[in-house]
Amino acid sequence: MYKAIVIRLFPTKTQAKLFWQNAGTARWTWNWGLALQKKSYSETGKILNINALKRKFTEIRNSEEFKWLQEVSRQVEANALIDLNKAYTNFYQKLKKGERGGLPKFKSKGKSIPSFCTRSERVRVYEKNLLSLKKIGRVRFKAEENLENVKFYNARVKFEGGKWLLKCAVEVLPKKSAIILRGVKMGIDVGVKSLAVVSCGRRKRVFKNINRTHEMGRLNKQLKHHKKNLSRKKKGSKNYLKEKYKVQNIYGRIKRKRHEYIQQTARKIVNMRPKVIVLEDLNIQGMMKNRHLARAIAEQNLYLLRMLIERKAKDFGIKIKLADRFFPSSKRCSNCGHVKKDLKLSERIYKCPECGKVIDRDFNAALNLERLAY
Length: 374
Known about the structure:
By secondary structure, the chain is an alpha+beta fold. The chain has helices at 13-44, 50-61, 74-97, 214-232, 238-270, 284-287, 294-300, 302-316, 361-371, and strands at residues 2-10, 115-117, 124-126, 130-133, 137-142, 152-160, 163-171, 185-190, 194-200, 203-208, 276-280, 319-323, 349-351, 358-360.
């Protein structure tokens, strides 16, 4: 099986210049290919296939006018064209399904994420903190995993949050867990007020919303301050770029903290060792249409939480069951089964008109989901 990993890179000033050169060449190649495809479609009604696109690029790469293209690895430019071809393929596949899909767009220097692909088979680890990249050399790195004698796949270097990262996949052996599962079931209700409310053997456990913590509030305050400063700088100036990197750095810190918390929450849930976990099959796209809740829902990363729980549960041998999308988990009383159809979103305490049960709304939903496991 394959595992996606992220490696933090610490390039020297010379290596950082080479990174920017590779990223700029990849962006230029994408824009060149997209302009050629648009021209081909306007003239013939068809776009070029990947092989024809590569042949035309080879011609200009070997010309005197574009000799600077040879300063970076050929793989950087070839992968930019492959990415463009995939973008067109995805666009046409969505059209066939009747879905809306945007055409590939030109990448601007200021807005697009600087990135480039490198030859995965040429990525090698030397000692504990050095890895080599083609035409760049040995770069210092930091990673949580032991990368000695590891084969890399789909290696891509990105500049995110003011840091250079190497994102790739490595082959790992499937884990055989020796953990003994308990004879309990679990229901998980996710939401905006709390990330998740869990009922495991009818016992309640709440995982808070990290976006409402003091630390995240402080980071959002810093972000607002630097974005205001950025809006006052002259575009393209050195001060504008300095402020822009500060904004990107804060965005990166917020993103990493959210992702780490989701990882920790998924691990804690699986460590309760239930036999079955019942999850909600939420329509995230539909929920995002509510303009009052769209931002709060997006910040919760609910789909990522579900994906991680399913992945970790599989390693432990825990069964996953999805509740029907229209199952009234919040409106049904966990005591008598009565469905309260007029339940409002603002009602955080569930009061059953039939049996008089008074219970926290989210825990009531988690109890109803837990019962589906039987």
